[in-house]
Design goal:
Elements lengths: L6 E6 L5 H10 L4 E2 L6 E4 L4 E6 L4 H6 L5 E5 H13 L7 E5 L5 E8 L14 E4 L2 H10 L5 E4 L7 H4 L4 E6 L3 H5 L2 E10 L1 E5 L6 H20 L3 E8 L3 H7 L7 E5 L2 E11 L5 H9 L3 E7 L6
Parallel strand pairs: 1-4, 1-5, 8-9, 8-10
Antiparallel strand pairs: 2-3, 3-4, 5-12, 6-12, 7-10, 7-11, 13-15, 13-16, 14-15
Bound molecules: phosphoribosyl ATP (PRT) and zinc ion.
The site of phosphoribosyl ATP has 21 residues, from helix 3, strand 10 and helix 6.
Length: 299
């Protein structure tokens, strides 16, 4: 593999982000030759290879220019950035895009039944976390002093084991907190997956492929909720119909052969199209309403 011409992208090897990361690359057209448990997979139809690693290693691999690109949760990236900065070093990865998956939040949670009066309730307490740098930054921002108990996992059971008074951990549905009799009280960081790149300037051919990949990712993200709507309507109803079409800019209006009054309307709607919207369109005079999925979009 030629380092000068082939992009290297780091992706989580096996975990919550793996399937979504590969899915979005697949939607961007990438076909990978990958044997199971391989560390690296070559792109068959793009000059891009995927390196499978632990998510925690992705920021450094990109910062140190081992990989050109990486897909990683903002929680991991921020922790690494704040950790480096707390030691007087510079975090150099650049965030290119925020992607619509891996959403979660890093939150403070206290035992149910305890009272909470804002960050000042943290003064002098012991907080268990796997995100010590992010938590330290939060505490400093709020001017409170607390003891950070750094754990490598199973943070949610720390209060019951007497190792901490409360926790700072990732939450998505909240059911883990509930099962451990904890109550979420404050969000420290909202997170989702981001695409990062090396700070090092790359050869032109690689920069071009990054641009192409980003355009394709934008297209993939745009079509996620998008639908193509086709309908017939009286010309007089067009102003109302345009109001009703969710997130569409310029619908195409086509005359219907043999009908002076009725037209066909075609539009891309960038927001979810609900049954209620279709019912309102019908009430406004539309008929023959079709809603189709959009597979690809390039603006
Ligand atoms: O082996 P490797 O180091 O690569 O994987 P990992 O075990 O560190 O990470 P993994 O696969 O668990 O998570 C990868 C990334 O997914 C995280 O860094 C986040 O960016 C994102 N993510 C999204 C989550 C969650 N949602 C999530 N709910 N990561 C972890 N959780 C855990 C959380 O720690 C808690 O234990 O799920 C539990 C809470 O979930 P709920 O739904 O009960 O609230
Ligand atoms: Zn990890």
């Amino acid at each position: 593999m030629d380092k000068a011409t082939r992009l290297k992208l780091a992706v989580q090897k096996s975990g919550r982000l793996t399937d979504h990361s590969l899915d979005i690359l697949g939607r961007c057209g990438l076909k990978l030759a990958r044997g199971k448990d391989q560390l690296i997979a070559s792109g068959l139809n793009m000059p891009l290879d995927v390196l499978f690693v632990r998510d925690d290693d992705i920021p450094d691999l990109v910062q140190e220019d081992v990989c050109d690109l990486g897909l990683v949760g903002l929680n991991v990236l921020e922790e690494r950035r704040l950790d480096l900065e707390s030691r007087g070093k510079k975090a150099d990865f650049q965030v290119l895009r925020a992607l619509d998956f891996g959403r979660c939040r890093l939150s403070l949670a206290i035992p149910q039944g305890e009272s909470w009066e804002g960050p000042k309730s943290l003064q002098g307490r012991r907080i268990a976390t796997t995100y010590p740098a992010t938590l330290a930054h939060y505490l400093a921002k709020h001017g409170v002093e607390a003891h950070i108990v750094t754990l490598s996992g199973a943070v949610e059971i720390a209060p019951r084991l007497g190792r901490a008074d409360l926790i700072c951990d990732l939450v998505s549905s909240g059911s883990t907190l509930q099962a451990n009799h904890l109550r979420e009280v404050e969000v420290v960081l909202e997170s989702q997956v981001v695409m990062i790149r090396t700070p090092v300037p790359l050869p032109a051919v690689k920069e071009e492929w990054i641009e192409r990949l980003l355009l394709r990712i934008d297209g993939v993200e745009q079509v996620r909720e998008s639908k193509y709507i086709m309908l017939h309507a009286p010309r007089s109803a067009l102003p109302r119909i345009r109001e009703l079409l969710p997130g569409s800019e310029f619908p195409t209006i086509i005359p219907l052969e043999g009908s002076a009054d009725r037209v066909a309307v075609h539009a891309v709607c960038r927001e979810t199209v609900f049954w209620e919207t279709l019912e309102s369109l019908k009430a406004a005079g539309a008929s023959a309403i079709l809603v189709l999925p959009v597979e690809k979009m390039l603006n």
